[in-house]
Structures are given as structure tokens and as C-alpha cells.
């Protein structure tokens, strides 16, 4: 077992894609911590809501026969750090090619395309995305959120998905996703 006095120093050195994931102050589970940062929980909630609205808009474009691939490209450019920072993306419905490290691989997941198993998650379509953060951690240059989000189908059913996201500001100060991990809840059957 690691001595308690070493944990803060270890946490201070942890980074993801060059983004600090922890500070030297210990945190209790389910708490939020901010020290000398401009990121707030409200910022994270706003980005989450806008991301969900973007998923709905992609599906609406697909249903209306509009350029849904362009809508998805704009969505990825707006919300993910591809091109400026490394991105770790593990989509919900990916089994064979589980990880999407490039813009084109993310686009394939959202609208179908270059990866055979992709059927186009965002063109399902969905009518709403509702977020329930279990916890949000705010650090110097990043924020981490974990919880459940619910995708409402056109039949009105909610599909529950578990998530972890890490957000980091880009050069303009806009929060971008550098880690996105989603999974369907565990089912013992």
C-alpha cells in the first residue's frame, strides 16, 4: 500500500495528453475542486448541453435529407481537440475498432463510413440528450466529468449510457474534449 504522504505528489505528476489531471490537494469522492482556474462546473454543464444539442442536430439533418456529414464534422471540430491535442475517444457502440484517435475515425462513428462496424451513432436519430454528472473535478487546466447521459429515441425511450469526459481549454479558451469514454451499463445476463 502506498503511504498517504506520497499520494498528493503522485497525483500532481499525472497528466493525460499533456493535460494535468490532478493537483497536489487531495479530493474526496464526488467533490469539485478549483484553484486558480477559469473553468467552472457551469462551463462544463454548458459544453455538455451544447454537445448533446449537436448530437440531436446531426440526427435532424440526416432525417431531413440535409448534409449530416457536414453537421457531424462541425460538431467534432467544435467539441473535440483533434488537431490541437491528442484525443482519447472510446465510443459506446464500438467493439472491433474500439478507440478513435483521429478526426476521421470519430466522424465514422458518428455518421458511419470508414470503419465497417460503424452504423452512425448520431444519425439514429435522438431527440434529446440529458446529463447527470456523478461528479465534476476542476483542475488548473482541465475538468473531468463522470456520470450517466440519456439519449431519447424518436419513440420517446431513454437509452442510459455511462461516461467519463476530460475537457481542456484550447488556445481560444474554449473547452475541448481530450478524453471521451462511453459504455452501456453492465448487464450480468
UniProtKB/TrEMBL annotation:
Gene3D superfamilies the record matches: 3.10.450.50
Claim: Signal is one of the keywords in the record: yes
InterPro entries attached to this UniProt entry: MICAH-like, NTF2-like_dom_sf
Signal listed as a keyword: yes
Leader sequence residues: 1-28
Swiss-Prot/TrEMBL keywords: Signal
Name of the protein: Phosphoribosyl-AMP cyclohydrolase
Source lineage: Bacteria, Pseudomonadati, Pseudomonadota, Alphaproteobacteria, Parvularculales
